[in-house]
Amino acid sequence: MVTPRANWKGYIKFGEVAFPVALYTAASSSERIAFNTLNRKTGNRVRREFVDSETGDTVEREAQVKGFEIEDGRYVVLEPEEVAAAIPNSDKTLKVEAFIPCDEVDDVYFDKPYYLAPDKMGSDAYKLLRDGMKQAKVAAVARTVLFRRLRTVLIRPHGKGLIGSTLNYDYEVRSSQKAFEEMPDLKIEGEMLELAKHIINTKKGEFDPKQFDDRYEEAVAELVKAKMEGRALPKKKAPPASKPSDLLQALRESAGMSTPAKGKRTAANANAGKGRQKANRAAASAARSTGGAHQRRAG
Predict the structure, then answer these.
(1) Is the residue at 151 inside a domain?
(2) Residue 244 has what pLDDT?
(3) Which of 12, 78, 235, 254 is the most exposed place for a label (fewest CB within 10 A)?
């Protein structure tokens, strides 16, 4: 088994305690299917080039420079050494600034997860921090320079170790108020709400990532395999017909409460009405017969 390569090495420091850690990517897209762009006529790979937007001439890498647009067509040029000088100095230390309740950070601020493993010496202090946070049910907020940027990292106990998630800055997170500003103020209650709660209760389960497959990757892999073997390409099935848009009816069907069709319901109601009429006539006839018998006995 190949030992993964650390993305970053440094220290975690809380109070006056510091210990070395190695940071590893927790989620990676390297296993996804990747495509190359080819020339349809020759089958050769296409090479990407940077060209001058005005002259159309190719610009080699050594002639390229960063620039910030201040207005249409006007840029502030930033030399590589100027950009490098602007990057904060890194002391390779994740300084814990505060311990907070684990559920205090909104998920929308989470960026990327990384495993934080003990590096060489310092495993005792590592376990001390992990177990202390577990018992106190807290996470640590720390800051350091990661990948040329000053980043805020949320450190939490994770299994036998620690996981550090980089956090988005407040200005990077869009306002939820703007996203939901057109949401109508409706109050759902009665049968609809009870049916929704019933469906939710019947669908309760536990999260198992192994149950969720990447159907796109599987479909593309099957497509590539079919072309390599000269087989007929897989055909896409037609989507199922859409269901009625009536929300209450859809909830009833989801809850297994089938309702009769309109025509059948009308016929059933008519038959029920006829039955009630017959019963009423029979009851009235019986009452008249009983009344006559009483009168004869009384005379």
Answers:
(1) yes
(2) 57
(3) 235
